[in-house]
Amino acid sequence: MYQLIMEASLVVQLVMIILVLASVFSWLAIIVKARTLRGVDRAADDFEERFWSGADLSHLYEGLRRKTVLNPMEHVFSSGFKEFLRARQHGMPPAEPAQGAMRVAISRELDGMERYLQFLATVGSTSPYIGLFGTVWGIMHAFLGLSGVQQATLAMVAPGIAEALIATALGLFAAIPAVIAYNRFSGDVDRIAGRLENFSEEFAGLLNRQSHPRASEASVATTGE
User: Fold this and answer.
1) What global pTM score does this model have?
2) Does 165 map to a domain?
3) Distance (Å, rounded) from C-alpha 57 to C-alpha 63?
4) Mind listing the pLDDT tens digit for each residue in 199-224?
């Protein structure tokens, strides 16, 4: 196979180089993205356990302010609680600004988690066509080499066709893992997005109850009756 690649035409060799590089970079993106999303899930589990354990929200917020890097759920909480405190200091209804801040935080976090997904989608959709272009070019080059031959045999054209088909194989080798990874990571990002949105809604409800304690107590009393 090495000899076939070295004897291929320049265009086919360039196609092979492009596909090999695309495969290498897509695998790097797959490894990085898998670790990142796995870390986001673990960090979200840890934070939710602390959040729902009855910890004081002010102490939890102060602890996060001392951290240099926040995971997505910590960022959503910190953004919402910061806006909650600011609105309450200015005598404004605090729950609505907190919800807006959390929506912005979620959007920013999702933008970060979707990084490299477009690259994987591009590799998965274009690599087979790039490989096919190399194959067509290689076969065309092989048959053009027979133009000055009186009697053509399969042995004369087989090496050229074989080296051209390597381009197709490389295209599929690059595309298949990229497509599988893109579908998997897209589903993971959607699941994490739903998790962050559910947390923000629950947290907003908690902040709303804290900002209207009397109304909440009256509601509880009415329910009890």
Assistant:
1) 0.80
2) yes
3) 10
4) 999 888 888 877 665 444 433 333 33
